[in-house]
Amino acid sequence: KLIQAEYTTVSDFREARCRAFHETRCNRGAYCNFMHIKHIPRAIKRRVVREMYDDHPEYLGQTRNKRTDKDKSKKEKDRDRDRSRSRRRDKEKKDRGRDRERDEEAGPPARQTSEERR
């Protein structure tokens, strides 16, 4: 069947998806104004990507280490900085989790007496 595509301005595709179709109960079919997205299994996605790179090896590794920092746009530099910040935050969270685990192993903290609180 030939697909007739119509262009529209969609800012968030999650909102454009038909919830009823996702829950397998949309009965509007072709008259539904929302997208009916078909699930594509991960194995098929992997196979298609592998075949794409087999057919076009010139695209392999092209984006890595090709540009220097001076060639990067401000947006790309900001994105790299945000990534390093998030990695740092993740590491700090993991370290805090380890500290918390050590504290739990040591047992609950001793309660203070009224004299110690003053």
Looking at this protein, list some descriptive labels.
0% strand, 50% helix, mainly alpha, 118 residues, single chain, extended
What does this structure look like?
The chain has 5 helices and no strands. The protein has 118 residues and is an all-alpha fold. The longest helix is centred in the last third of the chain and has 33 residues, at 74-106. The relative contact order is 0.04.
Q: Name the shape in a single word.
A: extended
Please write the string of helix (H) and strand (E) elements: HHHHH
Largest β-sheet summary: none
Mean of pLDDT: 76
With helices defined by DSSP (H or I, 4 residues minimum), what is the helix count?
A: 5
* β-sheet strand percentage: under 5%
Which quaternary structure do these chains form?
single chain
Task: State the low-pLDDT regions, or none.
Answer: none
Residues in helices, as a percent range: 40-55%
Roughly how many Å apart are the termini? 81 Å
Number of β-strand runs: 0
Structure at a glance:
The protein has helices at residues 13-16, 19-22, 42-55, 74-106, 114-117. It is mainly alpha-helical and 118 residues long.
List strands and helices in order, with pairings:
Layout: H1 13-16, H2 19-22, H3 42-55, H4 74-106, H5 114-117
